[in-house]
Design a protein that fits this description.
The protein is α+β, with helices and mostly antiparallel strands and 70 residues long. The protein has one domain. Helix content is 24%, strand content 50%. It is built from one helix and five strands, in the order E-E-E-H-E-E. It has a five-stranded mixed β-sheet with strand order 3-2-1-4-5, covered by helices on one side. The longest helix is centred in the middle third of the chain and has 17 residues.
Length: 70
């Protein structure tokens, strides 16, 4: 499983991959698009993906998708 997350960190929207920051200083919409694009690529490889997105008020949405069919 791979995990992508979009959170507000130090006043900037940041994209994380498996807990490591990979891009920061983005708008929220750009960060979400980046995370969704990476999630799509991982799903295409057959990986299970957990996508976490922080809302403007600190709420967190979680979506688990993908995985290879056996």
């Amino acid at each position: 499983m791979v995990q992508y997350a979009v959170t507000l960190k130090d006043g900037d929207w940041t994209v994380f991959s498996d807990g490591r920051p990979i891009e920061h200083g983005l708008s929220r919409s750009a960060a979400i698009q980046m995370a969704k694009d990476m999630a799509f690529e991982a799903e295409e490889r057959g990986d299970t993906v957990e996508l976490l997105i922080q809302g403007y008020y600190g709420d967190l949405s979680r979506k688990v998708t993908g995985g290879a069919d056996d």
